[in-house]
Design brief:
Elements: H1 9-19, E1 21-22, E2 31-32, E3 35-36, E4 40-48, E5 58-59, E6 64-65, H2 76-89, E7 94-99, H3 108-116, H4 119-122, H5 127-135, E8 139-141, H6 151-160, E9 165-166, E10 170-172, E11 183-188, E12 197-204, H7 209-212, H8 214-217, E13 221-223, H9 226-239, E14 244-249, H10 269-275, E15 281-284, E16 290-297, E17 304-310, E18 316-327, E19 330-342, H11 350-367, E20 370-374, E21 378-379, H12 389-405, E22 416-420, E23 428-429, E24 432-435, H13 436-442, E25 448-455, H14 456-466, E26 496-498, E27 500-505, E28 514-519, E29 531-537, H15 538-541, E30 556-561, H16 562-573, E31 575-576, E32 586-590, E33 593-594
Parallel strand pairs: 1-11, 4-7, 7-8, 8-9, 12-14, 14-15, 15-17, 20-31, 22-29, 27-32
Antiparallel strand pairs: 2-3, 4-18, 5-6, 10-13, 11-12, 16-17, 18-19, 20-24, 21-23, 22-26, 25-29, 25-30, 27-28, 32-33
Helix pairs in contact: 2-5, 5-11, 9-10, 12-16
């Protein structure tokens, strides 16, 4: 096991192999006409991130080739084609390939080999190991979603890779030693009789794992501050001979966090570049943004540190180019720049497709199984700003499961409320056959169901916090449903309750918007000291989104995946009928007048 006890023997061997000289480049020195210039060489870094289980350019929820309004394509197979093109164009010159994490979660393909046929039970190679091994990465950083399925599966996936997996700030909670490889140093040959370039690669994962996957890592792993960890390891890497230092970091560059201040910063990449000397460039991910080229000046050295983030799902490939000179026995970077390549310009790599074809086909067959028939079409398109049956479907199932589990306990007499978020704007249950992929498209995350007890005052505070999702719109002002939410708050951080009736007045300031909160079907206000059992997913209950009052001891936690509970409920009944679960209980208003 790598995770609880430090790097395995295999990882140490991988690191040693990575440090061995590899004949990657043989570049001729640049020459000016009639006048020799100082000898220079070049290095290219190709970077991917947040591929999230996407290998094929395929939308498993639509059972069709992936497409969006911007004609983006996705998948590691597309990335492979671009990477191979650049390797061929450079004719063997130094080209390193890194990934900044969030690899083994995010599609039904990834879920199938973690849940339906877990690689820990079958011993089968994970599809993302198969795909990435074809590309032959130099290193991957662990993202927060790598921890979603527990440490045994993560450890096995790492052992299936043909290259190192890095996470310097993931520390064994008992020994204080690195739980994974912190870094590798690659020796890059510059050709016959040329000096060798030693490239240090440091991996940093996201501290939010301590919240988001608390059930998997608590007492086993500690996640240290990314800035402090870089400050610790960069000098060590330099002392051990690294001529260049590259960081592959699973954290954004905004400097903000989605959780409270009790954990280190979630998105500190720009701060790392600014505060830690000795870094040449940072490939980063996590925020799913496209950052082509950003320079941050190090406050101690004045060095311009190059940053780049290649979007998500394999839509983009970062390319960083460095021009290098050898002066007085030391390497210096004379030029650095980044560009971004779009995977919709190429076809999928046939070798990657072949490596994963059987697993892809098995997943397609699985998600196309019919689970029930819906009496009408149910859409999630308006779930952010209207009470919709399809979101009530989630809350109904969660309420039913928790209520049944607590029967006969001390909590049996408390009303059961439920919380759900509009994860998808495109999810639809068609009238007629509803398939697994339809349910998976509604509930796209691998969350499990938990429950806690909240007071009436805590419920109100929670709803007030959730209501910050909406822009403030004065009575009479025009309302555009597509512009009604604050772009700084993602859809998954807006929650709706079932089991109580309430109004959200979006003409009022944040914190004063819950103007009506009554017991379901009555005009009786919810008392501050009232007690409720609240069904909630593990991400939120663990602190994801920094919602108030919800991080407390569970009264229910059977480790049941919510998506599977939805599938099981539909299969057991054979029919999905809004009459069985739709109870309109909340609305947006302005001065008491409904917005819609």
């Amino acid at each position: 096991m790598t995770s609880p006890s430090g790097p395995s023997r295999r990882q140490v061997l991988v690191a040693a192999a990575a440090a061995a000289t590899t004949p990657l480049i043989a570049a001729a020195p640049a020459q000016a006409a009639g006048k020799p210039r100082p000898r220079t060489w070049d290095l290219t870094l190709l970077g991917t991130s947040d591929t999230h289980g996407n290998v094929y350019n395929w939308d498993y929820y639509r059972d069709a080739e992936y497409d969006d309004s911007k004609q983006n394509d996705i998948g590691v197979a597309k990335l492979a084609t671009l990477i191979n093109q650049i390797r061929r164009e450079r004719r063997g010159k130094a080209t390193l390939v890194l990934d900044a994490g969030d690899t083994i979660q995010g599609t039904p393909l990834a879920t199938y080999y973690a849940k339906q046929e877990p690689i820990t039970a079958t011993g089968e190679k994970h599809p993302m190991a198969r795909a990435m091994n074809v590309i032959d990465y130099d290193a991957v950083t662990l993202g927060n979603h790598e921890f979603n399925y527990g440490l045994p599966l993560l450890d096995l996936w790492i052992r299936q890779l043909g290259f190192p997996a890095l996470a310097a700030n993931a520390v064994n909670a008992k020994t204080g030693k690195p739980a994974f490889l912190p870094y590798v140093i690659k020796k890059v040959s510059l050709g016959f009789a040329a000096p060798t370039l030693r490239v240090g690669i440091l991996g940093l994962t996201n501290p939010g794992v301590a919240i988001w996957d608390k059930g998997n890592v608590e007492g086993k792993l500690r996640f240290d501050d990314m800035i402090a960890t870089a400050a610790k390891w960069v000098p060590i890497m330099r002392a051990r001979g690294a001529d260049l230092v590259l960081i592959s970091a699973h954290g954004g560059d905004s400097g903000t966090s989605s959780y409270g201040p009790e954990l280190p910063n979630e998105n500190p990449v720009a701060l790392i570049a600014q505060q830690v000397p000795g870094i040449d460039a940072i490939l980063f991910g996590h925020a799913h943004n496209e950052v082509v080229e950003r320079f941050v000046t190090n406050e101690r050295t004045g060095t311009q540190v190059l940053l780049s983030e290649p979007s998500k799902w394999g839509q983009r490939l970062t390319r960083m180019d460095f021009t290098l000179a050898r002066e007085r026995g030391r390497w210096t970077i004379t030029k650095r720049a980044a560009t971004m390549l779009n995977t919709n310009t190429v076809v999928e790599d046939p070798k990657v497709l072949a490596a994963v074809r059987a697993q892809h086909q098995k997943t397609v067959a699985y998600v196309n199984q019919v689970v029930a028939r819906s009496t009408v079409e149910l859409s999630a398109a308006e779930s952010r700003y209207k009470d919709t049956p399809i979101l009530d479907f989630i809350n109904h199932v969660q309420t039913e499961v928790v209520g049944a589990a607590l029967a006969g306990t001390a909590y049996a007499d408390l009303p059961v409320l439920s919380i759900a978020a509009p994860f998808s704007r495109t999810a639809v249950f068609p009238a007629g056959d509803v398939k697994i992929r339809d349910v998976a498209g509604l509930y796209v995350y691998d969350n499990t169901l938990e429950a806690v007890v909240l007071s009436g005052a805590e419920v109100r505070a929670y709803l007030e916090y959730s209501a910050k999702f909406f822009r403030t719109l004065a009575p009479g002002a025009p309302v555009d449903p597509e512009q009604i939410s604050d772009p700084a708050v993602p859809d998954y951080n807006y929650d709706v309750f079932s089991g109580l009736d309430y109004d959200i007045d979006i003409s009022k300031p944040v914190g004063q918007r819950i103007t009506r909160l009554v017991l379901a079907g009555t005009d009786t206000p919810v008392a501050d000291n009232a007690q409720f059992v609240v069904a909630v997913n593990n991400y939120r209950r663990s602190g994801g989104g920094n919602f108030p009052g919800i991080v407390k001891t569970q009264v229910y936690n059977a480790q049941q995946e919510i998506r599977q509970l939805l599938i099981d409920w539909a299969q057991a009944r054979g029919a999905i009928d809004p009459a069985d679960f739709f109870k309109p209980n909340w609305r947006l208003v302005r001065e008491g007048v409904p917005v819609f």
